[in-house]
Amino acid sequence: MQIRQVIKALHLLPVLRLIWSAAPKWTTIRLILVxxxxxxxxxxxxxxxxxxxxxxxxxxxxxxxxxxxxxxGVASVMLITIVCNAISEFVNTAQSQQVTNxxxxxxxxKSIEIDLEYYENSDYQDTLQRAQQQALHRPATVVNxxxxxxxxxxxxxxxxxxxxxxxxxxAAVLFVAVIPxxxxxxxxxxxxxxxxxxxxxxxxxNRYLSWLLISDWYAKELRLFNLGQFFRQxxxxxxxxxxxxxxxxxxxxxxxxxxxxxxxxALIFAAYAFIVYQAFQGTxxxxxxxxxxxxxxxxxxxxxxxxxxxxxxxxxxxxxxxLYEFLRLKPKLVEPIRPQSIPTPMQQGIVFDxxxxxxxxxxxxxxxxxxxxxxxxxxIALVGGNGSGKTTLIKLLCRLYDPTAGRITIDGIxxxxxxxxxxxxxxxxxxxxxAKYQMTAQENIWLGNIELSPDHERIFKAAHHSGADAVIQxxxxxxDTILGKYFETGEELSLGQWQKVALARAFLRAAQVIxxxxxxxxxxxxxxxxxxQSFRQLIQNQAAILVSHRLSTVKLADCIYVMENGCIVERGxxxxxxxxxxxxxxxxxxQAQNYR
Length: 596
Prior knowledge:
Layout (H helix, E strand, L loop, with lengths): L2 H7 L2 H11 L1 H16 L1 H18 L5 H50 L2 H4 L2 H14 L2 H27 L3 H31 L1 H15 L4 H6 L3 H53 L5 H42 L22 E8 L9 E8 L4 E6 L5 H8 L7 E6 L2 E2 L5 H5 L2 E4 L10 H6 L10 H10 L1 H5 L22 H14 L4 E5 L7 H9 L1 H5 L3 E5 L3 H4 L4 E6 L2 E6 L1 H7 L2 H11 L3
Helix pairs in contact: 2-5, 2-8, 3-5, 3-8, 4-5, 4-13, 7-13, 8-13, 9-12, 9-13, 10-12, 12-13, 17-19, 23-24
Main location: membrane
Membrane topology: Multi-pass membrane protein
InterPro entries: AAA+_ATPase, ABC1_TM_dom, ABC1_TM_sf, ABC_transporter-like_ATP-bd, ABC_transporter-like_CS, P-loop_NTPase, Type_1_exporter
């Protein structure tokens, strides 16, 4: 390992800037304490030498006042050391917590800034996990290592000055003795880092298996299909493999460290033997012997501390590269330099003009050459099998992705000309995998429009329209009941009940377009009929997009688009499509037979 490589890897400034931004006050106090703590060993050693010399001289002529004064000096230095250590421990705790909180916020901010595309990419998941594992504690470790380098360097310079006053060769031994252990440390830092990166995917898979075993989402199936032992054994096999590899690296490092430390110990012993010989010859006083011994041991400790902490900084920066890799991710959706205002209300509506799209991690096009119009206040429906491109179309409309070909416009203006946050405010969406917030029932609905007050009357109206109100009224604390079992006193809902809460959230949002992706898949037919009987009144002249496999739901749409393999294969009203006797008519009749 070349020193140049180490220095190149120590990109401390970005991390130190993060630390300073997180906790400037505590960082300043720690710097002052480090300087004081670095200097304190020097007067303590010098007082010790003077005491030994004074005691030696006092055997013939006692000098009690001088001895008491020196002891008072030692006591003062020790008291200052104790006070500084106590303060330093408190400051270190405060700074570390503040840095952790700050880094958590940085991680969260970046997570919500990047595009949805990253979350649907396995490579990104590896990057995110590495960042999450390192971001919270590594920056604080960098600060500790940096300040330890400063403190040990101050002590080291003092010890070297003391040793040079006795013999230059002893000071030289310090530097030679620490080289072997430092080289071993740096070598195995690289070995561990490379192993860690190679094993990220396996480690993430094991975390997934652990989640399967402890999550309430899978608890029923694990028991019914007797999958618990199967997943447990798979988890343990992979953990054992990781354990064996970790043990192998640790064994190699232990052997190398043992050899390096034996060599370093031999050099230090030789230097100390030389000092004893000098004292035996009468070249040095007894106090000089004690001073040299202590300075040699403390100097070795300080130099080892410096080199070890530099190795630690090198390791920290290798692992922090994972954090930098994450923070360097940039949104692929470009914000316009001069965003245009959203037409409110829409006059011409939304137009998909020959739109195609392909996911980066897929070889096939998700949608191909799609053209359709949505007039203001119009209700359209998207019908088709799984994988036909319906949900992808919704993602493009909400600008979670940009089309790979064609364009989408509102009143003739391309979506990429609007500020993304303004554009998304125009849509209220319930996706198939709608969110279940472990919060109160009232908050679950209020999250659909947080610009309202948390107790706004529209929350209760939205709940009434979606059918959620009847469910919530049966809960122990009504709208103040926490939904889900994640927290104490929480009440779990059925899938259909959760879906009604999600619908209420969508109805609450003040948007020009409401999008319901399989909005009633878990709701019983009676409740579904009640919701859609008054659907026109519920959406209040909003345009609406319905995505559903239940064709009884889409009959009310002004226009139905039938999708297959990413293309629109049929379009028209329910009556028109039934007359065509095409795919829609076949699907409708197939479903209808089940009710006859």
